[in-house]
């Protein structure tokens, strides 16, 4: 008996098992969702409160886009560091850094310090996104990557919706300084699900049985990055930044319903909030769709659907139909982005980092392109047609990818052993 007792003492306390793959993905997504509260509140509060902070409109534009531009560099930094450092440590440090930036927002620093903090947040988001996506991709069983990544994306989108809503409500109730300090605490709470979800996870390695065909032809990779750039340029850039202006042009004075005038700002806000809500609800289902239909086949169908929706929205049709077409576009955009994340992620963390950079570039450049078009063209509705042309080009790139992917059915899946890189 003594001998057994000694052996147990030498073994030490039992090691707690790592979270199951599905639980790990959901908890990691929840941690990332918590981190978004401060950033989303920036987009709600700063455009309204900027004058009292001593900021100019140009400075507001710089602050709200700086975190995107810095990610052109930090996405690749995150990919390299996450291959050498324990992902849990990086995730916790990034969450703490994100919470700290939110707290600094509440101090209302001078513009230059505000800008530096936004750059720090952009770097933190690069790490959070890289770790979260690669954890989901490498946790999924063969043929289930789309649905697992869809679950992760849906959970993360809760942060976009809740952060936007909470930021506005808490700002009106508590004031500028208090709201950011409160949300910094909420963001810091994301460390708890992060530790629970990532405990025991080592380096992210894509299993060969899950993989897409490993394509040595760089053309296939560049076609993926180009599609990602187009998706973000149109969806996160052109459409989101100009939608309110388009609606105001088509409905000057608002929308009369039952004797009540619904303002354009309200309609625009509802549609943009609906975009994130659709991603929360729809991402897991769209992931199943991608798994069943195949990555490239689904992309071809979704690009065609989105192109048709934007073309109809461009035409002189009733505003109700325009709204329906915008919803169809948002659903297609969500599924397209999800499919590209699966495609790049299954080819390795480096390819995902490059895709993320291409999409960040699109989301940063899109508003500039959209408002340039508004200034040059007679009708802002032309932004819908510009988006349709971009998505039509996306269809062409998808067809070209089918010719280089190495699979006969164009599904994008096979069991060719994956090689890292």
Arithmetic mean pLDDT? 80
Helix content: over 70%
> CATH homologous superfamily of the largest domain - what is it?
MFS general substrate transporter like domains
Strand order of the largest sheet: 1-2
Number of domains: 2
Architecture of the largest domain, according to CATH?
A: Up-down Bundle
In quaternary terms, these chains amount to single chain
Number of beta-strand segments: 2
- SSE string: HHHHHHHHHHEEHHHHH
**Tally of helical runs:** 15
CATH topology of the largest domain: Growth Hormone, Chain: A
The fraction of residues assigned to DSSP E strands is under 5%
Task: For the structure shown, list the relevant keywords.
Growth Hormone, Chain: A; 1% strand; 421 residues; mainly alpha; 2 domains
Could you walk me through the main structural features you see in this protein, from its secondary elements to its overall organization?
This protein has 421 residues and is mainly α. It folds into two domains: 185 residues, Up-down Bundle (Growth Hormone, Chain: A); 187 residues, Growth Hormone, Chain: A. It has 15 helices and two strands. Strands 1-2 form a two-stranded antiparallel sheet. A hairpin with a 2-residue loop joins strand 1 and strand 2. Helix 6 packs antiparallel against helix 7 and helix 10 packs antiparallel against helix 15. It is globular. 48% of the residues are buried. The N terminus and C terminus are likely disordered.
């Amino acid at each position: 008996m003594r001998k057994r007792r000694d052996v147990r003492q030498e073994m030490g306390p039992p090691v707690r098992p790592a979270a199951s793959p599905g639980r790990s993905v959901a908890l990691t997504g929840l941690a990332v969702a918590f981190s978004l509260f401060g950033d989303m509140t920036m987009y709600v509060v700063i455009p309204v409160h900027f004058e009292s902070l001593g900021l100019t409109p140009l400075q507001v534009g710089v602050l709200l886009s700086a975190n995107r531009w810095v990610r052109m560099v930090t996405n690749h930094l995150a990919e390299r560091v996450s291959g050498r450092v324990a992902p849990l440590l990086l995730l916790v440090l990034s969450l703490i850094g994100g919470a700290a930036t939110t707290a600094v927002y509440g101090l209302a620093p001078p513009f230059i310090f505000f800008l530096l903090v936004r750059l720090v947040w952009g770097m933190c988001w690069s790490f959070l996104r890289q770790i979260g996506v690669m954890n989901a991709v490498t946790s999924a069983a063969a043929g289930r990557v789309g649905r697992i990544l869809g679950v992760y994306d849906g959970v993360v989108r809760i942060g976009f919706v809740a952060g936007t809503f909470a930021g506005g409500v808490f700002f009106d109730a508590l004031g500028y300084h208090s709201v950011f300090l409160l949300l910094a605490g909420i963001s810091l709470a994301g460390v708890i699900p992060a530790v629970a979800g990532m405990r025991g996870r080592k380096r992210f390695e894509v299993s060969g049985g899950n993989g897409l065909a490993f394509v040595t032809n760089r053309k296939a990779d560049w076609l993926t990055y180009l599609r990602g750039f187009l998706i973000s340029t149109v969806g996160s850039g052109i459409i989101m930044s100009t939608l309110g202006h388009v609606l105001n042009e088509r409905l000057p004075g608002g929308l009369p319903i039952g004797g009540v005038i619904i303002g354009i700002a309200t309609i625009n806000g509802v549609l943009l909030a609906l975009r994130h809500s659709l991603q929360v609800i729809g991402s897991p289902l769209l992931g199943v769709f991608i798994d069943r239909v195949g990555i490239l086949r689904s992309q071809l169908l979704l690009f065609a659907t989105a192109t048709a929706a934007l073309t109809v929205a461009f035409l002189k049709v009733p505003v109700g139909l325009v709204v329906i077409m915008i919803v169809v576009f948002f659903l297609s955009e969500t599924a397209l982005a999800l499919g590209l994340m699966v495609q790049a992620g299954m080819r390795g963390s480096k390819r995902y980092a490059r895709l993320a950079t291409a999409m960040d570039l699109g989301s940063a450049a899109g508003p500039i392109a959209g408002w340039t078009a508004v200034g040059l063209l007679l009708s802002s509705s032309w932004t819908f047609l510009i988006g349709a042309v971009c998505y039509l080009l996306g269809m062409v790139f998808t067809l070209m990818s089918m010719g280089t992917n190495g699979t006969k059915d164009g599904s994008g899946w096979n069991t060719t052993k994956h090689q890292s890189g």
